[in-house]
Amino acid sequence: MTAFFKQFALALRGHRTLTLIVFAGLTLLSAFFTLHSRVDNSLSVWQSADDPHWLQYQNFVARYHIIDPLIAYLPGLGLLELEETADALSERTSAASVHSLSIQSLTGKEAGVFFILPKAESRPTDLTALLTEVEDVLQHQGAGYHLGGVWYLTTMLDTLSAKTTQTLFPVVLTILTLGVIILVRNRRNVLLVLLCGFIPALQITGVMALAGIKLNMILLALPPCTMILGIAHAIHLVLKQPDEEHPDSLSLFSEVAAPSLLSGLTIMLGFFSLVFSDYLPIRQLGIWGTVAAALSLINPLILLALLFEPAPCRTIAIPDSIVAFMARNRLPLTGIFLLLSLLAAMGISRLNTGSLILDFFKDKAVVRQNYQQIENAGLGLTPFEIDLAGSTINNGDLQAVLGEFAKDNSVITQILYYFDDGTVITDSTENGARFPRLLTLSKMEKRPERATVLLKTLASEPTLALSEKLEAVLQQRLGPQKQPYVTGSVPLYCRGQQRLFSSLLTSFANAFFPISLVMGLALRSFHFAILAIIPNLTPVFFILGLMGWLGIPLSVATVTVASIVFGIVVDDTIHFLHRLQVETRTPGTAIEHLHNTIHYAGPAMLTAALISGTGFLGFFASPFIPLRDFGLLISGALWLAILCDIVLLPLLILSWKK
User: Which of 38, 111, 99, 110 is nearest to 70 (CA)?
Assistant: First the structure.
């Protein structure tokens, strides 16, 4: 393998100009398509095409022509101003229709509510434009207002995540650049390391945009993951200095390229295992994670083969006595890891799954304040849709069933009944604002074709639990049927998030066996492969425990941290074990072999963790909570990963070699 990479580097250097021109052209093309990258967290992103709940909802929406409205709440608005504002919204926005109501809030004050319906099949960009138009009209009217609704929330989520990502990535890149400059020092190699991280991150974003794949809260993790891996591959080489065995850049490159190739292929295999998931977002993460891992490997191999020249650098010093210290204190150090594992287990027991989507925004964010003002006034912004097409229950009994359910669940504020002639009858609960009530359901001769239950916004887990509870009540009281009564965008969001957790964790658990098998075959030692499992799993275990202690839920925004931690740990572990395998071919004791291994591979591992971990702390300044948590967790995970590779892995090897 060493001879192959030496010939590979010689071949590239023999056609250096042509290779650089092709490489630069492909990179510029990727940059062009990166400009067209978009973020999309809409409902369809989290659904599988064959999911029966999704198919039912699509049929429900098509049958009744349902579109989630933008809700505008204007406190203190009189009837005259209500009509004027409704006319202005109808005339000066692209809304399909505007419906207005004068309601009485829980405080007893009058308020105006507008249900602003976008045109059918509006794209995310159309919804953003409509939102801007509505705000312009309301500001021109001079009245205070608050906005809410399902697509308002997802639009604001997309807008904030996209803007924050565009703003903070330059900050992160600046911090990474300073770290590389301080530790690598040589200008040529500083630029080389940064290019090895930045170019593949740019390429994966551009390739996904070219393929028509929009970034969501899962796929947003791939560019930073790609950048970390590319930088790690480069640092493992540029920190190496010539010696008698490796006197020049080609021999140094060929020595480091082999474990880099093995780690890259192993990470690709880990992501590729997700392709077999039955859940579409996980399959997408598997496909594009594999491509990202490939780009983070190919780019450094080409750039380093072409341009690397050894130069003095400031390596992180590792004490000469560290291995002897670990050998003497094997039991106390093992006890510390066991104690940390116990604390991590306690943290995991406190870990919550799912999250309140409003927690993605800071306390003083406009979105959060809007929701608080509207829901405190007694208007729930989370809808459960009820399909009554197959029900034969009379109106009085239906009203009683839903009224009793609302009485038992104080988060419900209103129940709306819809008829095929366009009539809408509203029932307000004890905890809801009073809507105009000109008609009574029990006195209607026709049965409603559907109903909407409005409730205050909850976290995803209790929201899904409440929808399942309502479904059980309706199946019992309205009569059993195969097709669920309860549907709607919010239950689908919650169900998709729940499925995301189970699918991703199961898929990564299943990936560990084939990855360990490949590591064993490549290193030609199943003892090493078995030993590698523990330090590969431990950082994931620790970071989940840390999330539990810090109160950070396992949400759609943080669930990808495990995959990134896994990738970094595998990379460092393979570099460590590959060097140890080389050392064991020479005479000496286990302590001597570990000493040589740590001092050869350790400085690069520590440098990569320090630079990348510090860089991602830049996300901590984000106003978008998921990105803030993501940066904090990635930084902590990188340091935990290096702790496991530098300390835990040698402890395991010392115990095994004893």
Answer: 99
DSSP three-state, residue 389: coil
Looking at the structure, tell me whether residues 228 and 331 fall in a common domain. yes
Q: Tell me the two tokens of residue 228.
A: 């970390």
For the segment 166-193, what is each residue's pLDDT rounded down to a tens digit?
777 777 778 888 888 888 878 888 899 9
Given 148, 174, 193, the domain boundary residue is 148
Where do we find the tokens 């976008």? 118
Q: Could you write out the DSSP letters of every residue in 323-358? A: HHHHHHTHHHHHHHHHHHHHHHHHHHHT--BS--GG
Q: Across-strand partners of 415?
A: 427, 453
| 8 A C-beta contact, residue 307 and residue 237 | no
Residues whose CB falls within 8 Å of the CB of residue 261, separated by 6 or more in sequence, listed in order = 1, 297, 301
How many other β-carbons are positioned within 10 Å of the β-carbon of residue 570? 24
Cα 557 to Cα 621: distance, rounded to the nearest angstrom = 16
Place of tokens 């999309």: 40
CATH number, domain containing residue 632: 1.20.1640.10
| Alpha carbon 384 to chain centroid, angstroms | 26
Find the helix or strand (DSSP H, E) in which 417 lies.
strand 412-418
What is the distance of C-alpha 523 from the center of its chain? 33
DSSP class per residue in 451-471: EEEEE----HHHHHHHHHHHH
Model confidence, pTM: 0.80
534 exposed, middle or buried (CB, 10 Å; 0-12, 13-18, 19+)? Answer: middle
Shared domain for 463 and 376, answered yes or no, is yes
Q: Which domain holds residue 99?
A: 69-148
Residue in the block written with tokens 């406009």: 366
Helices 590-615 and 150-184 meet at what angle, rounded to 10?
A: 130
Rounded CA separation 450/101 (Å): 20
> Exposure pattern of 312-322 as b/e (b: 16+ CB <10 Å)?
ebebeebeeeb
Q: Rounded to an integer, what distance in angstroms lies between the CA atom of residue 236 and that of residue 191? A: 15
Burial class (CB in 10 A: 0-12, 13-18, 19+), 227: buried
Q: What are 16-22's contacts with CB under 8 Å, separation 24+? A: 16/306, 19/302, 19/306, 20/306
Instruction: Let me know whether 196 and 345 are in one domain.
Output: yes
Residue type, 69: P
What phi and psi, each to the nearest 5 degrees, are found at residue 115?
A: -105, 105
With 0-12 / 13-18 / 19 or more C-beta atoms within 10 angstroms meaning exposed / middle / buried, residue 116 is buried
d(C-alpha 60, C-alpha 492), whole Å:
13
- Give 591-636 pLDDT, tens digit per residue: 888 999 998 888 888 888 888 888 878 777 777 787 788 788 888 8
Same domain, 24 and 166: yes
Note whether 176 and 231 are within 8 A (CB).
yes
- If DSSP codes are grouped into helix, strand and coil, which group holds residue 146? strand
